Amino acid sequence: MLRFNMQAVGRLGSDPVAKIVNGAAVTNFSVAVDTSYTNRSTGEKVEGTQWINCAAWNGLGQTAATYLHKGEQVLVAGTPRFRTYVNQRGETVVSVD
Predict the structure, then answer these.
(1) Distances (CA, A) of 16 to 10, 26, 61, 86, 95
(2) For every one of its 97 residues, what pLDDT tens digit does the chain have, with 9 covering 90 and above?
(3) Residue 61 dihedral angles phi and psi, to the nearest 5°
(4) Residue 65: which of 19, 23, 24 has the closest Cα?
(5) Where are the extended beta strands (E) located within the chain?
(6) CA–CA distance from 42 to each of 37, 39, 45 (Å)?
């Protein structure tokens, strides 16, 4: 069985939001991860920010909702889900959750 896990270090974009879904506690938050690389053809340094949408369930979710706050640095680890959708401008967007 192939399993893809990832780890990312970044900062919370907003305070986590806790709610109950089908009787289970879940906390949602997004993490901003700064990226940078050098364009090989131009030699120019390119910087950007990638956003990762996260969900923490049950006890971990409750802990995240209690102790995490906007702007704090966090390490997230887990199995990502990749979603593709078309935004309002007609562009295809890939989202990592």
Answers:
(1) 14, 10, 9, 26, 19
(2) 667 888 999 999 999 999 998 988 999 999 999 999 999 999 999 999 999 999 999 999 999 999 999 999 999 999 888 889 999 999 998 887 8
(3) -65, -40
(4) 19
(5) 6-12, 17-21, 24-38, 45-57, 73-78, 82-86, 92-96
(6) 12, 6, 9
